[in-house]
Amino acid sequence: MDGGVANAGNTMICPDCRAENIEGVEVCEGCGADLSNLKLPSAASELEDQLLHARLGEVAAQDALNVAPGDPVALAVHFMRDKGVECVLVQDEDGNIVGILTERDILLKAAGSKQDLMAMAVKEIMSPDPVMLREGDTLAVAMHKMSVGGFRHIPFVSGDGTTLLVSIEDVFRHVAEFIPRD
Q: What dihedral angle (degrees, nearest 10) is formed by the CA atoms of 13, 14, 17, 18?
């Protein structure tokens, strides 16, 4: 089994159950998986070190704007334009994030249609169940999730419970100084 992920504070994430384990243990405390043969990634450059060890909490992310599933798409568009953001999170009445509405969703699912954006509910065109990360997840994890999922924004929960949005641009801005210039 290959692919354990090193984590800050000398811990390791189990590739099977994602439980944190003390680096070097042979069996996962969460699921009992064999961790003895894991190949831990090591950084060959400052850029790789940043990607492997910098956390989402270190990136200049923005507070997420929220709309309700039943809100009109026109309201979400107004919020996005007014605040200069490319997406909003869709939050139900219990405070759970149930979707994300992006410019792309609006362009591909609503723009050009003869429907009135005031009559169309956000839930009709949002992307449901967005991938959510945590403040302690690495930039490499965020970039991987964005790449595999084909999206440019990913929400994460900060230590105080606030939901923030990080974009691929935010990640690149954070690591730009570590990109070799030769």
A: 10
Nearest of 17, 29, 16, 124 to residue 73 by alpha carbon: 124
Task: Calculate mean pLDDT across residues 54-66.
Answer: 92
| % of the chain beyond a pLDDT of 90 | 57
User: Does the predicted model carry a pTM greater than 0.70?
Assistant: yes
Tokens at residue 85, please?
């953001």
- What beta strand segments (E) does the chain contain? 5-7, 11-13, 20-22, 62-63, 66-67, 87-91, 97-102, 127-128, 133-134, 153-157, 163-167
How distant is the alpha carbon of residue 176 from its chain centre?
19
Residue limits of CATH 3.10.580.10 in the chain: 66-128
pLDDT tens per residue, range 104-121:
999 999 877 677 889 999
CA-wise closest residue to 125 among 143, 140, 107, 139? 107
Phi then psi for residue 54, to 5 deg, are: -70, 145
CATH top-level class of 66-128: alpha beta
Asked whether 47 and 176 are in contact (CB, 8 A), the reply is no
Tokens encoding 179 = 């990109």
Round to whole Å and give the CA distance between 90 and 99: 5
pLDDT-above-70 percentage for the chain: 92
